[in-house]
Amino acid sequence: MIHLYGLVIGIAIITGLWLMEIQAKKHQVSSDNFYKLSCIILFGGIVGARLYHVATDFHLYQNQLSDIFKVWQGGMSIIGGVLGGALSVWAFLRFSSLGKKINLAMILDLSVFGLPVAQAIGRCGNFFNQELYGLPTQLPWKIYIEPAYRLIGYEQFSYFQPLFLYEMILMLLFAGGVWWGQKQSWLSGFSIGSGRLFYLYIYYYSFIRFWLDFIRIDKTHFFNTNLGLNQAFLLLVMVITICFLRKKK
Q1: pLDDT digit string (tens) for 118-152?
Q2: CB neighbours (10 Å) of residue 59?
Q3: Could you give the 3-state DSSP secondary structure of residue 159?
């Protein structure tokens, strides 16, 4: 049985890697080396995406641990995916001979040409699974959530904010800016191989995700605050990336 969520994620991965490969060829990364790194990034990204989701939303699985392995039901964190992919390629380059030929910062920068588009496509999976929606609303672009998928405490509402759609649009805008900016030489301060483009992407995503999560209703709260656990982590990430961007001018 083919699950729509898995199909969407597969399309997102293929599209993201294809866009990365286009840029990799322009920067003299051979197809053989690119495919090796792609496999490493893909494996680390999938594992990281699932582990981060389970760790931050463990209450969803504590009474049914077998559900941890049911990835087709949703629950793949982009934050964990990026962390897992970056750490896996770092470890691979650190302990293999390929690390002498390819710079980690180069690969991270190249990933920015595919990651935002892959994220945007992947968010379509949230629509099919009826997840990652926001507060109840009557806005013209509201989405209907079936009763079975409404969170506890919101059963009386039918229409919600399409939180996944907001993120999808914002990531496509960033992707368009990166591709167009490269052609127009707007990214001269973010040369491929410096790592700065990857830091910019991390900061941008952390920033939009931090604010979007204020209308998210299924988040795990950070102690007794209005912040989600992800938001607290993203605040830290923003501070760190700003430091890197200022340091590497």
Answers
A1: 999 999 988 988 988 999 999 999 999 999 999 99
A2: 8
A3: strand
pTM, 2 dp: 0.88
| 3 state SS for 177-189 | HHHHHHHCCCCHH
Contact between 60 and 68 (Cβ < 8 Å): no
Alpha-carbon distance 68 to 216, whole Å?
Answer: 22
Report the C-alpha gap between 55 and 65 in whole angstroms: 12
If we measure between CA atoms, which residue out of 200, 196, 135 comes closest to residue 162?
Answer: 135
Give me the amino acid identity at 138: Q
CA-angle at 128, arms to 71 and 215, nearest 5°: 90
Alpha-carbon distance of 141 to 81, in angstroms, equals 29
Residue of 201, 84, 70, 208 lying closest to 129 (CA atoms): 70
Alpha-carbon distance 104 to 106, whole Å? 5
Output the pLDDT for position 87.
Answer: 94
State the residue for tokens 């007794």: 224
Instruction: Indicate the helix (H) or strand (E) that contains 202.
Output: helix 196-212
Q: Are strands 143-144 and 159-160 parallel, antiparallel or unpaired?
A: antiparallel
72-121 tens-digit pLDDT: 666 778 889 999 999 999 999 998 888 888 899 999 999 999 999 999 99
Cα-Cα-Cα-Cα torsion 136, 142, 146, 149, nearest 10 degrees, comes to -50
- The overall longest dimension of the chain from CA atoms, in Å, is 59
| DSSP string computed for 93-137 | HHSSGGGGTS-HHHHHHHHTTTHHHHHHHHTHHHHHHT-S-BSB-
Neighbours of 189 (CB within 10 A): 12
Classified as helix, coil or strand, 74 is: coil
